[in-house]
Design a protein that fits this description.
This protein has 126 residues and is an alpha+beta fold. The protein is 37% helix and 21% strand.
């Protein structure tokens, strides 16, 4: 099933935002899009070809942000044990899915958890 236009727009905004962060690069391990900084993934973007529901997976150490993300419709701790480390998968096609702005805030939070201090300083200087 092809993703909805709304979900796809959100996904594109989030992807663009993530790749605009200092030192961010996109790679395609396991055939899905991820944004990395310093060779470490800070957001799993999945696929946009409709083979799997659109969603983003972010690492949120902040308890409030983590709880908020988990309260999104259909959200769940990430699989493969990543949930224990604070990773949350947020689907974009559910009714009431978070707005792109909020998703971008979570992506930035995830980035700050993983990026080296010098790149965080560069981000703060913007």
């Amino acid at each position: 099933m092809a993703p909805t236009k709304t979900a796809l727009k959100k996904w594109e905004k989030v992807r663009e935002f993530a790749l605009g962060l200092p030192g961010a690069v996109e790679e395609f391990p396991w055939g899905e899009s991820v944004a990395k900084v310093n060779k470490k993934v800070f957001v799993f973007l999945g696929v946009d070809d409709g083979s799997y529901p659109l969603g983003v997976t972010v690492k949120l150490r902040d308890e409030v942000a983590h709880a908020h993300a988990l309260s999104s419709p259909g959200a769940e701790p990430a699989r493969y044990g990543l949930g224990k480390a604070g990773w949350v998968r947020v689907p974009l096609e559910e009714k009431g899915a978070p707005a792109a702005e909020l998703l971008c805030d979570w992506v930035e939070e995830s980035y700050r958890t993983i990026a080296p201090k010098r790149l965080i300083a560069e981000l703060d200087a913007r």
